[in-house]
Amino acid sequence: MNENRKIVEAEYFHRQMQNVIAEYDAFGFNFSAFLSAARSAMQYALEEAMKKAGGQKWYDAHMSSRPILRFFKNLRDVNIHVQPLTLSKSVNVRVAATLVMTGNLVITKYDSQGNIIEHIEPAFQQQIIPPERQPPEVENRYMLKEWAGPEDVLTLTVSYLNEAKFVITEGITRGYISG
Predict the structure, then answer these.
(1) Domain spans of the chain?
(2) Which helix (H) or strand (E) holds 101?
(3) Could you give the CA distance from residue 154 to residue 163 in angstroms, rounded to a whole number?
(4) Tens of pLDDT, residues 59-78
């Protein structure tokens, strides 16, 4: 009955995570709120589906066949009942620069008998030219040690939202929940 409202709330916190990605605490607070809202959508679906014939079986089938749904259920349970989650943060900074090499190449000329008639040795100099008025590119990424895959938190949360929306849409279509 309130599933779609909680999905909208989870999407709000997802956008907030994107907006504060450089700020560790703010990102973590919004991630915690995301977990609660998104999991509430699934809890509402379960509570409503249990009242319909076959609803519990339908819900359990989705939870058992979709690893990301189980993962986020467990993650939210730990975050609420055991301890706040710890996120790993990495920051990558890219600065564009140009490497210029100047100098002479080795050039050797031979006469018809194979004698060297001219030989120029290399004399290279390297110079790095800094970028002109280009700010560095900064990428902030958050990872969950509990997740075995290479996906970061923002990627995982999008996948979770998509799965939850699928389950809710199917539940509405099949008449197990009202949305």
Answers:
(1) 3-93+134-174, 97-129
(2) strand 98-102
(3) 14
(4) 999 999 999 999 999 999 99
